[in-house]
Amino acid sequence: EAHEDNQQGRQITTSRDGTLMLIECAPQMFEPLANQMKQDSVIDDDDEDAQLTTGFQLVMRACQRFYQSKIISNDKDLSGIILYGTENSLNAFDFKHIYILHELAQPSAERIIQLENLSEQSRYKSKYDELFGSTQATGYSLNEALWTCSNLFSNSPQRLTIKRIFIFTCNDQPHASNLTLERQAKQRAKDLNDVGIELEVFPILTQTIIRFDFKKFFQDVLMLSDEDLDIRNNQEPTGRLNELLKLVYSKEHKKRAYCTVPFSLGKAADGTPLEFSVSVYNM
């Protein structure tokens, strides 16, 4: 009986999620955040928000916290980071201005330290220039960035229960001057949705980018209803770390199954096993 119990225990499959952070590196992401005071002020070492003065720093710190939370709560989940709009490129397809910072993997101390360095006020710019180049590019293709994400999911050595892409951007219409690139990006987003890959967008506002209109582009990417569009456009994008993390966690935790358990009804008349999987949720 003990042997049978062990066999049954091994059949329980723990849920494993995969999350890719797709981060825009447009010049506006390096401007002061919308919530920053325009006049010069002394930075309080105890005020984390005061030290995160740009959108890029804010997102890097949010990714760092996301990794840390994974180690504590779901250390088997996989996470990765892709940047687009960089001068340097690093990906399997030789796509221009797309840089894979972290492949899909379990979070590690090394990755967390790297993200901390990319968010700290005193060193983030030198670290950025060293890795990604000293200038930001505009000739990227969001379609190619999404394709890169899809490829990382396809090549994952682990079976993933949920696959999601979190887009951090300050640009509500990334291909406004190129309808072909815009159409390709929307089609790629639809293709990802068709194969069960979830997309979510987190707007980042700066002192020159003061409004984010989902209707221009991302309504089609996220396939939002008119009601959902109104809700999104009426939400005030955040420039504070805790508020951004709250939004990220709210999207990350939805529809998460804790594990799946095989359930057997015996055998059919022809001897075929009658089995199905039951998902267990932590409410």
TrEMBL record:
<dbReference type="GO" id="GO:0043564">
    <property type="term" value="C:Ku70:Ku80 complex"/>
</dbReference>
<dbReference type="GO" id="GO:0005524">
    <property type="term" value="F:ATP binding"/>
</dbReference>
<dbReference type="GO" id="GO:0003678">
    <property type="term" value="F:DNA helicase activity"/>
</dbReference>
<keyword id="KW-0347">Helicase</keyword>
<keyword id="KW-0547">Nucleotide-binding</keyword>
<dbReference type="GO" id="GO:0000723">
    <property type="term" value="P:telomere maintenance"/>
</dbReference>
<keyword id="KW-0233">DNA recombination</keyword>
<dbReference type="GO" id="GO:0003690">
    <property type="term" value="F:double-stranded DNA binding"/>
</dbReference>
<keyword id="KW-0227">DNA damage</keyword>
<keyword id="KW-0539">Nucleus</keyword>
<dbReference type="GO" id="GO:0016787">
    <property type="term" value="F:hydrolase activity"/>
</dbReference>
<keyword id="KW-0234">DNA repair</keyword>
<feature type="domain" description="Ku70/Ku80 N-terminal alpha/beta">
    <location>
        <begin position="49"/>
        <end position="257"/>
    </location>
</feature>
<protein>
    <recommendedName>
        <fullName>DNA helicase</fullName>
        <ecNumber>3.6.4.12</ecNumber>
    </recommendedName>
</protein>
<keyword id="KW-0238">DNA-binding</keyword>
<dbReference type="GO" id="GO:0006310">
    <property type="term" value="P:DNA recombination"/>
</dbReference>
<keyword id="KW-0378">Hydrolase</keyword>
<dbReference type="GO" id="GO:0042162">
    <property type="term" value="F:telomeric DNA binding"/>
</dbReference>
<dbReference type="InterPro" id="IPR036465">
    <property type="entry name" value="vWFA_dom_sf"/>
</dbReference>
<keyword id="KW-0067">ATP-binding</keyword>
<dbReference type="Pfam" id="PF03731">
    <property type="entry name" value="Ku_N"/>
</dbReference>
<dbReference type="InterPro" id="IPR005161">
    <property type="entry name" value="Ku_N"/>
</dbReference>
<dbReference type="GO" id="GO:0006303">
    <property type="term" value="P:double-strand break repair via nonhomologous end joining"/>
</dbReference>
